[in-house]
Amino acid sequence: MKAKYPVSLLVAALVLLALSVPVLASKMDDQIVSSAKKSYVFKNYLKNDDIKIQSKDGAVTLTGTVSEESHKTLARETVAGLRGVKSVDNKLEVKGESPAVNSDAWLITKVKTTLLFHRSVSASATEVNAKDGIVTLRGNAESQAQKDLTTEYAKDVDGVKDVKNEMVVSTPPKPSKKTKTAGSTIDDASITGLAKMTLLYHRSTSALNTSVTTNRGVVTLTGKAKNAAEKDLATKYVSDVNGVKSVKNRMTIE
């Protein structure tokens, strides 16, 4: 004989269920906003920008101002990688006038930004200048390998015609034993954002045709590459992004 439940209990259960759904959604939205603010990218790369984050049922809206165009893109890509995010409406505005596309000032910003994403080179120790599309690098490099890699990264920035590397190779002081390994506390969403920006800023790779996901520092690349060389470069560039432990490249060649 089937048990019969009072109608009042069924109604009460349905009411509780209906009330619990918006509560859970609200908690997820709060978690998204909190995770974005605590992310490595927001605390380091975007800390001086005025970014407001709102989330409703996983639909995130970014408003406020940033200092440069790359920050606007980086904020969107990082938030898009957070758990629970369904979409990102990027309404961030860039303060002041942005340099004209392909101008020397534009190239300087792009090269500096590109170097910032890679851990094997030092953006802070590298002075970047440009004239008529030719980039000149000065400053200090820890080794000849680092100097050569800085040249390689700068050359692969869209718009750069050539690179003159006048950096001086000097032995750096030994790091303190207490120094943390670079990238040891970087969250997956930040790694995804930085990886996407890296693929975007290098002209030999395509961010549009590459999907990036990160799980505990392990990055998986899917999508399409024009050839084997592009696929290999995608792996190389992403492997050198802060926080990346390893790269699984599952891209197919067109």
Give an overview of the whole structure.
- By secondary structure, this protein is α/β, with parallel strands linked by helices.
- It is 40% helix and 24% strand.
- The protein is built from seven helices and twelve strands.
- The strands form three sheets. Strands 1, 2, 3 and 4 form a four-stranded mixed sheet that branches.
- Helix 3 crosses helix 6 (188-201) and helix 4 runs antiparallel to helix 6 (188-201).
- The radius of gyration is 23 Å and the shape is elongated.
- The chain starts with 6 loop residues before the first helix and ends with a strand.
- Mean pLDDT is 88; it is low at 176-183.
Kindly summarize this structure in a few lines.
By secondary structure, this protein is of the alpha/beta class. It has helices at residues 7-38, 40-45, 69-80, 104-117, 144-155, 188-201, 228-239, and strands at residues 50-56, 59-66, 87-90, 93-94, 126-131, 134-141, 162-165, 168-169, 210-215, 218-225, 246-249, 252-253. Strands 1, 2, 3 and 4 form a four-stranded mixed β-sheet that branches. Strands 5, 6, 7 and 8 form a four-stranded mixed β-sheet that branches.
Break the fold down into its secondary structure elements and pairings:
Layout lengths: L6 H32 L1 H6 L4 E7 L2 E8 L2 H12 L6 E4 L2 E2 L9 H14 L8 E6 L2 E8 L2 H12 L6 E4 L2 E2 L18 H14 L8 E6 L2 E8 L2 H12 L6 E4 L2 E2 L1
Helix pairs in contact: 3-6, 4-6
